[in-house]
What we know:
Helix content: 40-55%
Number of strands: 13
Strand content: 15-25%
Mean pLDDT: 93
Order of helices and strands: EHEHEHEHEHEEHEHHEHEHEHEHEHHH
Amino acid sequence: xxxxxxxxxxxxxxxxxxxxxxxxxxxxxxxxxxxxxxxxxxxxxxxxxxxxxxxxxxxxxxxxxxxxxxxxxxxxxxxxxxxxxxxxxxxxxxxxxxxxxxxxxxxxxxxxxxxxxxxxxxxxxxxxxxxxxxxxxxxxxxxxxxxxxxxxxxxxxxxxxxxxxxxxxxxxxxxxxxxxxxxxxxxxxxxxxxxxxxxxxxxxxxxxxxxxxxxxxxxxxxxxxxxxxxxxxxxxxxxxxxxxxxxxxxxxxxxxxxxxxxxxxxxxxxxxxxxxxxxxxxxxxxxxxxxxxxxxxxxxxxxxxxxxxxxxxxxxxxxxxxxxxxxxxxxxxxxxxxxxxxxxxxxxxxxxxxxxxxxxxxxxxxxx
Length: 368
């Protein structure tokens, strides 16, 4: 009896790296693969990966960009130690393939995979490639793109989409059968999502925008706002000054699939995973990119939706409130605009990305 094939997944740090990798890990596990994961003890993966039953191997690696000299020296030492540890790990588990989604641990483990001639595949989630993936791309068997723009497509560079949670991808077919269409017969449903920790500019900007609406327009809105655990009281107070608006404030939204299904319009940041979820769920959006994101990648992510007529891009500046208010007013007056934007978003979707990545892994493992 043949032993089950083994894969080493490299992903860590933030949900933008970890959750797409987790979606692929679950598909591969269902297809009979044994999944090992390499990350750090500090990132989100340290909690999420063991909670889903996968073995996590941690490395001491940390970032190098934008740090002082002493920190860089310590980081280089940690990088070397992580590379040696990665060699040992690969010798021990002998994976059939190695799959990287970015994050600090992907660098040393990816180089070790190349040197030991293990098939290396990387997946870049954003429209601008991260540092680690830029380094690993030349030595990878396949470079997979979650959004267009990070690398030129070609024989070994392929646009495949960002893997999203199964509950989210299931909405793609559901929305095509029973689309959520906003009409004048009910209030417009506005979902505000600032990430797991919330976003202070959105927490204040959206209530400020509502305060600029007429009472006639304001009563035509229903709002669900995820503001982060530290900001509930302050955000509720902001909405309290907008008497006509119906707003529910949550520290965190556990069931994002249900939230997308409810919403006519989402106001949010433009991380790669959020952008891909908007596509798959066919949801119109107003995108406010995080202004200090590395290489301004959130702006480039947002442009993919805005230039396709699927979303509106608003920079985070002093004009955010008035511009947001003007957009809300226009959408309330012309609901069909949201329907058009939602359709444009769905046309960009690649809902089977997790399975597609798994198929690439199975393909490269066969020729190894």
